[in-house]
Design a protein that fits this description.
single chain, about 525 residues, Four Helix Bundle (Hemerythrin (Met), subunit A), 4-stranded antiparallel beta sheet, 15 helices, Cys-tRNA/MSH_ligase, metal-binding
């Protein structure tokens, strides 16, 4: 099959940097996107604390910001994406004691698990993944700077940030002074105010510790991100991302530390994604999946999926559902909305993807070219087409513009995916009306229109990180079970085929309907029948 790019004729290069608006949590409004040092863009996303295996909630931010980087890059920006790894923390220390192994071993194992899951979901745009333990010198220097400027104070080996010294504290999370609380426990008695928070914690017993001007100890959670983002992205950078549950206290504290240390804003745009919760509010794409803007941060945080509420087993979930289905599922909802996670929603995502897979098979049959072998256009300014008098290509041009309008409006991937379904309808209608089939003349105008249109579809799906490699069949279990299930399904498909050939449609329909009740869909194609799990 050919691996050549689909030929396209440029219609208009347009502006190098199109109008893009981003919702800034700090200002609570959508603002024009204007990077500090265009075309360079710096993005920092808070990553995981690696004390246990990743769950599906850990993938929300990485998938979203991987897509955001793809889109910004497509628009001509030079993007640096940083996702940190917290590998020293109370939870890691507790897990180390529980398992009787070094904290570093747990962190290494769980980081490997996290990165393997990122790969399966197509997250490959991260440039730096700094670890807290590799940045201890920078963290200590950062704290020393805050202390020397009067923003921090040491007590018995602990160092605290004095919140009262930062007059803008609370603006990000919209909290008043009496709503601000730092760490409790033994540290509370040593603080000047309950709202002060730890920058450095004195070592206790045999827990991991590092030498510092205040004695042996380890950093607080918030200071790690301030130090690492500063080292890689500078004093002020463009975008800081993370879940809504991190807005307070984590991001509020990061912002205070960094702005006070450097006498400059830490971030220009604060972007917070909605959280994931288990529920039965309806299928993906319904209003229930997009109504998080009416929920408070507290409501979303209360219902979010976490390890304490049964979240986990992401590797197994990927094996059953495939990484592509999970990525598609996460992008079907606008990033600021709550994502309702349930079996029905995942089944809906799988059914939706099948429509694309069927079209790819159809295109392959007609053109002799695999959709996956097409090289997508990598710049927005280069990808438009000259429709001429072709009504199909004019419709494709309009759909492309509609896709970009959705993404320009605060990275609305949900609306952008809706455009992709419109694309499918347009392309399938063109094939049907033109009578294109396996024996189609590759030099006919109808074939040329199809190739050009599919090239645009390839461009848009690549921006979302979808369909980058051939689809993987879901297993639903271990290898032996998957092999047995495959053999049994082949037998049932053959029996159904035989029944249809003998015009025994009652038996044929009974096999299909019973399998549907069991959560298995039969997909009839020109080259045979395949199947997939829907539950």
């Amino acid at each position: 099959m050919s691996t050549a790019a689909v030929p396209q004729t440029s219609k208009s290069t347009g502006p190098t940097m199109p109008e893009l608006r981003v919702y800034n949590t700090l200002s609570k409004t959508k603002e024009p996107f204007a990077p500090l040092h265009p075309p360079k863009v710096g993005i920092y996303l808070c990553g995981p604390t690696v004390y246990a295996e990743a769950h599906i909630g850990h993938m929300v931010g990485p998938v979203i910001f991987d897509t955001i980087k793809r889109y910004l890059t497509h628009n001509g920006y030079q993007v640096t994406l940083v996702v940190n790894i917290t590998d020293v923390d109370d939870k890691l220390i507790a897990k180390s004691r529980e398992r009787g192994v070094p904290m570093s071993q747990i962190a290494t194992e769980m980081t490997a698990d996290y990165m393997a899951n990122l790969k399966e979901l197509g997250v490959n745009q991260i440039d730096y993944m700094p670890r807290a333990t590799d940045n201890m010198d920078g963290i200590i220097q950062f704290i020393q700077s805050l202390e020397s400027q009067g923003y921090a104070y040491a007590v018995d080996g602990d160092v605290f940030f004095e919140v009262a010294k930062d007059k803008s504290y609370g603006e990000l999370s919209n909290r008043s002074t009496d709503q601000q609380q730092g760490e409790g426990g033994g540290a509370a008695a040593r603080k000047r105010s309950p709202s002060d928070f730890a920058l450095w914690k004195a070592a206790k017993g045999d827990e991991p510790a590092w030498d510092s001007p205040w004695g042996r100890g380890r950093p607080g959670w918030h200071i790690e991100c301030s130090a690492m983002s500063h080292r890689i992205l500078g004093e002020t950078f463009d975008i800081h991302g993370g879940g809504l549950d991190l807005m307070f206290p984590h991001h509020e504290n990061e912002r205070a530390q960094s702005s006070c240390c450097h006498n400059a804003p830490m971030v220009k745009y604060w972007m917070h994604n909605g959280l994931m919760r288990a529920g039965n509010k309806g299928k993906v794409g319904g209003k229930s999946d997009r109504d998080a803007t009416t929920e408070s941060v507290a409501e979303q945080t209360e219902g979010k999926i976490s390890r304490s509420k049964g979240g986990g087993g992401l590797a197994e979930l990927i094996r059953k559902q495939t990484g592509e289905r999970l990525r598609f599922f996460l992008l079907r909802t606008h990033y600021r909305s709550t994502i309702v996670f349930n079996d029905e929603a995942l089944a809906e995502a799988g059914t939706s993807l099948e429509a694309f897979y069927r079209f790819f098979d159809r295109f392959d049959e007609i053109s002799g070219t695999s959709f996956y072998d097409l090289k997508p256009v990598t710049r927005r300014s280069e990808g438009d087409i000259d429709a001429g008098q072709d009504p199909v290509l004019e419709e494709v041009h309009q759909l492309r513009e509609k896709f970009f309008a959705a993404m320009d409006d605060d990275f609305n991937t949900g609306a952008a995916i809706s455009v992709l379904f419109d694309f499918l309808r347009t392309l399938n209608r063109h094939i049907d009306q033109s009578g294109l089939g396996k024996a189609a003349d590759p030099n006919s105008p109808a074939s040329a229109t199809l190739r050009t249109a599919v090239g645009v579809l390839r461009e848009l799906t690549a921006i979302l990180g979808l369909f980058m490699r051939p689809a993987v069949q879901t297993t639903g279990g271990d290898d032996a079970e998957a092999e047995l299930a495959g053999d049994l399904m082949s037998l049932l498909i053959e029996l159904r085929k035989s029944a249809r050939e003998n015009k025994d449609f009652a038996t044929s329909d009974a096999i299909r309907d019973r399998l549907a009740e069991l959560g298995i869909a039969l997909l009839d194609k020109k080259d045979g029948t395949s199947w997939e799990r829907t539950k």
